[in-house]
Structures are given as structure tokens and as C-alpha cells.
């Protein structure tokens, strides 16, 4: 293990726990490369085995030089860069870890990675990540005891801790605002009573329901992308219910549905906003000629009362004001990201909360039925790392250590659904205070 070199690409909101964990292990040299070198320097924090560098990821020559120097690369960049990094890792026979979903382009690299003896380990964060690992621990246990899974429901949400939930959206950003909002445009697909349920992206926030999570409370839930592939990935052939969902506080879905209907989640070509006010921007997107009472007009467009909480939420966000747009150029989504980040960021000392909950309908070998649950509730550390940062980046850090220690020997494109990965990662997370509690009823 001594002398192994790790390259961490990206120094964003969730990077610090990963860098800190690897530096604390001893025996690893960690290089953090970021467009903004000051962010990388803050993560390394003067550690003797750490190095901070400035890197423009679009400069492939500079990126390749860094990859040739490392034994393993961790990409915490936006997902659009992962394939570029992966190809260079294959070329130079270096393994790679990410916390992002496996794209079709990434999956297409499987054969080449295997042929070059490289592991490309993806989906090793929270969701996706801990959700896979905690689910597979139960699934494998049920199967080993002669039972079968007949239904599986999984929910995950990153939210303000109840004491710090003080805005009408019930949400604050603990990771990429654009990532949060772009996820709200994805269509949903899940299995209910043996039939596939399709939810178009435009209707995602209109397809929500209430769910009660033990120990955490009541939340709104809606489908998280396509749940169907996980039937095969989890080995759940014959299952009749399969749903992976997202959790939010009450009111989020109705408000985001209105924002979607007004076109504010559009990611069209970039536009210039010099001299434009927020109400001008809203008028242009909604197609309304907004007069002295934009609140009333927008309420009418949405078919809502002027006093409806959704309209009040849009007002609170500032969309009916003459305040400047806040960015010089960008898409509608960029404008919304900028506005929400100003109004919905964590203040110093505030805590976030992670809620991850699985429910399994199990048929035992005897034919008797039972419900098995797994629940993770984690809180941020005031003045320290957020729960989101810890639960996203520590699994990737632990997996990176295990790969470098040659305790994970898989090659090709993988996600952490095998015991070789999820067993030791979950054990180490538990040691670090991130524990999934299991129950049977």
C-alpha cells in the first residue's frame, strides 16, 4: 500500500470527507486537481501527503499527465466528464471510482476495461451507492436463507435537518443545485403489481405521494429515474413491485410542478440577461405580458388562487420582483439555480439530514411473509461536513482504499452490488457512524 497515489478530480461540495479519509489512512499520496486551486488547497489543508493543483479538465493533455502519475483516479467532476477520464484510465491501466450513475457510454467501456485489467467502479456514493449496498446485504441474506423478495421500495432524500428547515420550499442545497434541478426533469419508470408505470419528465412532480419513514417523519415521494433495470442488477426476477423514489418535504412537488409548467427548468441555448429583471425573465418564459400584478396573472396561468402556497413560494423566491436576473448569461435552468442557491443555501452552523429507507416484502422458505426494512438517518456536523458530503464521498473513499489494497479484484465496469465491495464498505461506514438499521416485522 505504501506510496500508492490517488488523483481526486474535483473539489466541490462533497469532496472534503473523501480527501480527508484517504490522507488519514497513511501511505497514500493524494493529489486534488480542481479548476479553482484554492478549493483544492482547502481540502488538502497543508497535509504532507497532499498536493493541490489547478486543472482545466477540457485540457486533455494536462489531464492525461495527471492520470499517468496516479495509481487510481476518483472523478468527482460533473458526470459529463467521467467517460473522458475513464478512457484515459483504461489507456494507462489505472482504475477509477465515481459516485455517478453508469451511463451507456460508460457501460460501453466494459470490455476494453476488462482487457486492460482496469476496474471502473461507479455509483459508489449515497444514491446511487449506499442504497445499492444496503439493499444487496438484505437481498443476499434473504436468498441465503431460502427466501424470496416479492416487492422492494426504496426512498432517499437529502434535506435540511428539522431544526433548520426554515424556508417555504423545505429544501436547501447540500450538493450541486444544477444536479438537483436537472434530476427533476427525468422521466420515471417503476413496477407496480407486475405492471410498468411510466411517468413523463414534465409530469414527474405531479406524480407524488406521501410516505411515512420511521424515525424521520412524513415526506413527499416521487419516482427516481428508471427503477426497472435494478430488477436484474439486484437479481430480483419475478418481483411484482419495484420502486426507487426521492424524498422531499411537503409542498416541494406542487411548487416544482408549477416551476416546470412555467418553463423554468428548460435547459435551452444560453441567453444574455443584461438589464433584465426577474419578472421580465418570468414573463418571457411564461408567455405572459405581466403588468402591475404579476402574482395574480401567474396564479391565473397556473389555475391557482392568488393566495395559494405555490404562488406565495414563487413570490418568496423573488420571481415577481424587479430585481436583476443575477447572471449575465445562461439558460433558464441556470437562472433558477442562481436564484435558488442565493435563497436556499445552508448558513454557518446549520445541519442537513439524509434519509435512506428500504422496504422489502419477503416470502420465507416456509411460505410465511414478512417485511424487512433498512433505514439510515444521518445529520450534518455543525461547522463541519454535511451529511450529504459524508454519505456521498466516504463510500467512494473506502472503495478506493480497498482497490489500492488489492482487496477488490474485479475488472471492467461495475457498481457495488457484490459482497466483495458492499461488505467491507458498509462495515467501515458503520465504524464511521453511518449505519443502516435493519428491522423485521
CATH class (first level) name of the largest domain: Alpha Beta
β-sheet strand percentage:
15-25%
In angstroms, what is the radius of gyration?
A: 23 Å
Net shape: globular
Contiguous helical run count: 16
CATH H-level superfamily of the largest domain: Dihydrodipicolinate Reductase, domain 2
Task: Name the helicity range.
Answer: 25-40%
- Alpha-beta content class: alpha/beta
* Major β-sheet annotation: 7 strands, parallel
Could you tell me the mean pLDDT?
95
Walk across the major sheet and give the strand order: 3-2-1-4-5-6-17
Low-confidence stretches: none
Instruction: Report how far apart the termini are.
Output: 44 Å
Give the total of domains: 3
Short summary:
This protein is α/β, with parallel strands linked by helices and 441 residues long. It is 35% helix and 24% strand. The strands form 4 sheets. A 7-stranded parallel β-sheet has the order 3-2-1-4-5-6-17, sandwiched between helices.
Could you please describe the fold and organization of this structure?
This protein is an alpha/beta fold and 441 residues long. It has three domains: 4-122, NAD(P)-binding Rossmann-like Domain (Rossmann fold), CATH 3.40.50.720; 130-253 and 347-379, Dihydrodipicolinate Reductase, domain 2 (2-Layer Sandwich); 269-330, no CATH class. The protein is 35% helix and 24% strand. The protein contains 16 helices and 18 strands. It has helices at 16-25, 37-44, 60-69, 82-91, 104-107, 110-115, 130-144, 177-183, 229-233, 252-261, 278-286, 294-302, 309-317, 332-343, 387-404, 419-431; strands at residues 4-9, 28-34, 50-54, 72-75, 95-98, 119-121, 148-160, 188-192, 195-199, 209-213, 217-223, 241-248, 271-272, 329-330, 352-363, 369-379, 412-414, 437-440. Strands 3-2-1-4-5-6-17 form a seven-stranded parallel sheet, with helices on both faces. Strands 10-11-12-7-15-16-18 form a seven-stranded mixed sheet, with helices on one face. Strands 8-9 form a two-stranded antiparallel ribbon. Helix 8 crosses helix 14, helix 10 packs across helix 13 (309-317) and helix 15 (387-404) packs across helix 16. The radius of gyration is 23 Å and the shape is globular. It starts with a strand and ends with a strand.
